[in-house]
Amino acid sequence: MKKFICIITACTLLDFSSDFSLSAMAYNNIENKTEEKTALRLAAENKNLKFYVDDSSGEIALKDKNGNIWYSSPQNAGGDPIAAPSVVSDLQSPLSITYCDPKKRVDASLYSKSGASVKVKNIDNGVEITYKFKKAGITIPLRLTLFDDYLEAKVDTSNIKESREDKRLTGISIMSSFGAADSDDNGYFVIPDGCGAIINFNNGKVNSKSYARMVYGQDITMSPLTMSDNTSQVYLPMYGIVKDSSGLMTVCTDGDSNALLTASVSGVSKSSYNLCGFEFILRSSDNYYISNDTSSVLTVFESGDIKTDKISLRYYPVEDSDKNGMDYVDIAKSYRDYLINDMNVKKTADSFTELYIDLYGGTEKKHSFLGIPVTVKKSLTTSSQAASIMRTLNSLGVSNMTVCYNKWTDSGIKNRIDVSAEASNTIENEEFYEFLNHADENNAAIYPGVQNVSFTSGGGYSVHGDAAVRISGEYARLYDYDIVSGGAYKDKNVKFLLSPNEYPKMFSKLAENFKNKGIENICLSELANSLCGDYDKSSVSRDKTQQILSDGFKTLDNSLSSILADSANAYAFPYIDKISNVPLCSGGYDIFDEDIPFYQIVLHGLKSYSTEPINGSADDRKLMLNAIASGSNPHYDMIGESAGAIKDTELDGLYYAYYDNWTEQAANDFLFTRKILSGVQDKSIISYRKSGSKTYTEYEDGTLIIVDFEKESVSVNESEYYLSDYTVNGA
Fold it and tell me: Is 0.90 topped by the overall pTM?
């Protein structure tokens, strides 16, 4: 990295030591004989923060009470020896856009530094900056407002002006270089991919790809014809920066369903800088296949007005909470505070350990009758079998169980939209309600599950009237994929995606029917982690779908006692009580340096959560140790019939789940977890670190849990426990 000398004069200095007492700064690149000046003036201040703006470029700076300064653009991007001019323009641009010509089906980019005029106007506690991209005929007002502990950047899309029919805005990037680190900086980015990961600055992974993932997962309306090589998801609409002794958290508070989280390191970013930020997709695109040949494809853009009402980002300077050095736990604490104070997320976690179990009631299976293939319902776990499993686990010492009972209705078994709350005779429907009423005798809380994301026709729902439509005009389908080739099975187990327009009616019926049947709990399964749009004439954006889902969760929360969700997105947190299938790894991208239990650190003490199914793991003992290190409850899949019952069915992936093979091990895992975690499950994690083969997790009551992955042991309160003592041979 080239070194730069600061020219200090009475009229140009921005004082780093105590206060922004003067209003400008100049840097002189001695080697290249170029000079770059940024004139910053004070725009707003309070007791915690000061906010500065450059009236000529729109670049900003944010200073906290500890003297840490965060810039919207690198201060000497123009002197970067490896950045091309277009990359420099991007680095120096607080706002950039992508736009398309719908007829030509191509898009292009413009950067505010080189492609827009800038006009700054003072507003209460901040400024409004209007960027006018003359070439594209697009004008965008950006409001920057200083609050007590954060700076907000907001675009109201109704105020965006598009003056040309052949130039339509498709995307916007706001301050994507905010907090950029140069090649001499020490620190990392906190990425909420899966459980969480960090990307170290300047990690030397110049042959890796930049990271780019949609918040809340890809729009499942556009289901691909080839299987994705990575199924990790960004569940939290935020990221963090830890730079030396300072930290910054960025939270997307509006438009998060259309946000793309990107990150790259020096070299990979085509510059000397390490970058992380959000891009927003304002008009989506889709592939339209002209024939069965997937190489004959056209790009189709979403038509009509922009469907996302607002885009809002908050930039929070983060303090070192324990004075032992800034780290990702401080970022997690700040995000937890945001959830509690701004999203009204209530604490529902109890102090005790739980065993999470997924049961599967039935499935469909093909049989031959008089030489004619017929599809029949097949029982996998009847009500009496479920009760027997609970009694067995209870007798083995399991004192608290959270049980999701999947596929317990005819509609659920047939993959139809499931709102009836009417148990199938396949699982002994009369005994089912008796099983629910007496579950507490076995220390179990039963959550009947509904899927309702995808469906096949029947039960009052049809493909032609209720399925979501892609931008290309096709009905949205969800496919199974060939494990070897990765190609989609176009004629096997194809399901259609329910239109978000149908969600309000679906949630209302669920709440009414569950309440009428006396069912107090519900498991939402994929409804809490899947997000789509519907691009038919009555178009519903992902942004609108997110709001519809939140309203639906609220309806259930007001009507029922408790909601269990499956690896939930952040917008579900205010309404749910428990979360299953929380991942203990990230997507494992090459650019990542380390996985961290960030999701778990954020939620521990707020919500009860479990691992993914332990008996479905290739290394169940390592998963158990990771569960202890992250404060997770153990989780098992179970069915009442042996593997032969699910052969050649859609549930044949549960070949491992026959209950009789796992009840003893599941009970032992519960007992092992209870020995260590009971008493802290309602406590926040205040410190987490790794050293060699050990992890150290500290809770707010002072409890320190040390997991040794090499010895497969756990130490807590001067006691040591060995996983082998709780492992059943042959499980």
Answer: yes
